[in-house]
Write a structure and sequence with these properties.
The chain is mainly α and about 50 residues long. The protein has one domain. It has one helix and no strands. It has one helix at about 10-30.
Amino acid sequence: MFLFSKKKKPSEDSIKRLEYQLCLAKEAGADDILDISACELAEVNYRKP
């Protein structure tokens, strides 16, 4: 049993899905919801504008 595991790198498909969702969010505006549930992210970095 491992106490610490390696971080799983997102697949190329998940990176493409994330880029697509970011493009959709940029076109739609900041008021819409961004669905990144299928992008295999381990953590989300949030930066205030």
